C-alpha cells in the first residue's frame, strides 16, 4: 500500500516541497511529483531523449507525466531531493486516516516501519492541533 493510495494529495502539500520540486509541479501533476520523489528521491535522474510506456520513469510516475517531464527537461540530469518533510507529512496523514478507520497503534507501527511511540506522538500532535 503506497502513501498515495491512502492519502489524498492537495495543493497544501506544495509548501512542503523543495523549490525545485515546486517548479516541477508546474510541469507535471503533484501526484507524479510525489511519485518521482518516492521512487528517485536522493538520486540524480538522467532523463532520456524519449520515453516509452515500459520505461522505469513511466512506470514510476505514469506515461503522460513522463512524457511531459521529458518534453520539458529532455537529456538533462535532475537531482531529485528526498523531501523528507513532505514524506513525513504524507506518512502522518496516512497514519491519522488509518487510525480514524480503526487501525491500532501496533498495526500502524508495523505498516509504517516506525515504533508505536512515534504513532502515539503523531496522534497526540494531531489532537493538540484540532480543538475539541
Give a topology summary.
Blueprint: H1 3-6, H2 19-24, H3 30-40, E1 43-46, H4 56-61, H5 63-73, E2 77-80, H6 84-100, H7 105-112, H8 116-129
Antiparallel strand pairs: 1-2
Helix pairs in contact: 6-8, 7-8
Description:
- The protein has 132 residues and is mainly alpha-helical.
- It folds into two domains: 65 residues, no CATH class; 45 residues.
- Helix content is 58%, strand content 6%.
- The protein is built from eight helices and two strands, in the order αααβααβααα.
- It has a two-stranded antiparallel sheet.
- It is elongated.
- The N terminus is likely disordered.
What would a concise description of this structure say?
By secondary structure, the chain is mainly alpha-helical. The chain has 8 helices and 2 strands. Helix 7 (105-112) packs across helix 8.
Main attributes?
mainly alpha; 2 domains; elongated; disordered N terminus
Amino acid at each position: 500500500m503506497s502513501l498515495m493510495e491512502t492519502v489524498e494529495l492537495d495543493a497544501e502539500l506544495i509548501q512542503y516541497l523543495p523549490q525545485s520540486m515546486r517548479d516541477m509541479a508546474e510541469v507535471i501533476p503533484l501526484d507524479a511529483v510525489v511519485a518521482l520523489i518516492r521512487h528517485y528521491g536522493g538520486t540524480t535522474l538522467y532523463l532520456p531523449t524519449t520515453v516509452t510506456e515500459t520505461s522505469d520513469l513511466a512506470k514510476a510516475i505514469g506515461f503522460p507525466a513522463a512524457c511531459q517531464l521529458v518534453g520539458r527537461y529532455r537529456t538533462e540530469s535532475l537531482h531529485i531531493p528526498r523531501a523528507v518533510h513532505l514524506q513525513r507529512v504524507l506518512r502522518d496523514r496516512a497514519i491519522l486516516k488509518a487510525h480514524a478507520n480503526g487501525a491500532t497503534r501496533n498495526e500502524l507501527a508495523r505498516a509504517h516501519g516506525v515504533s508505536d511511540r512515534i504513532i502515539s506522538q503523531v496522534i497526540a500532535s494531531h489532537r493538540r492541533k484540532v480543538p475539541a
